[in-house]
């Protein structure tokens, strides 16, 4: 299961890096105005309008892969084996007191809530 989780993480990282690169390569909406006055877009690698379609479709594909890998990581991160018991917070800690014991215990005072403070003296 851990190998599959690492594989999904690798796919997510690669899709994120590729998507960032594709977004940075694309030109904004204001770049079309300069191209209409002889910006030289017709001599580009993808043609006059081919780069916008190619880059936007590639970005959409990378975004879909990123989204699906994120869902996969969320699913496989929550799947537990049969040998795992309890909560993440329970690891390495003592078992929690029962609800009856917690209700009968006196409420802590302000001094007891301060870490490292000496216990309060018993009142006479």
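^ Assign residues to that structure.
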């Amino acid at each position: 299961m851990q190998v599959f989780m690492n594989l999904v993480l690798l796919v997510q990282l690669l899709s994120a890096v590729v998507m960032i690169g594709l977004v940075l390569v694309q030109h904004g909406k204001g770049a079309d105005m300069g191209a209409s006055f002889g910006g030289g877009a017709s001599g580009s690698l993808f043609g006059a309008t081919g780069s916008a379609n190619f880059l936007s479709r590639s970005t959409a594909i990378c975004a879909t892969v990123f989204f699906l890998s994120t869902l996969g990581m969320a699913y496989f991160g929550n799947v537990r084996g049969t040998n795992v018991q309890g909560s993440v917070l329970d690891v390495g800690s003592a078992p929690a007191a029962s609800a009856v014991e917690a209700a009968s215990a006196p409420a802590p005072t302000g001094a007891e809530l301060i870490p490292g403070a000496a216990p309060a003296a018993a009142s006479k």
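The mean pLDDT is 74.
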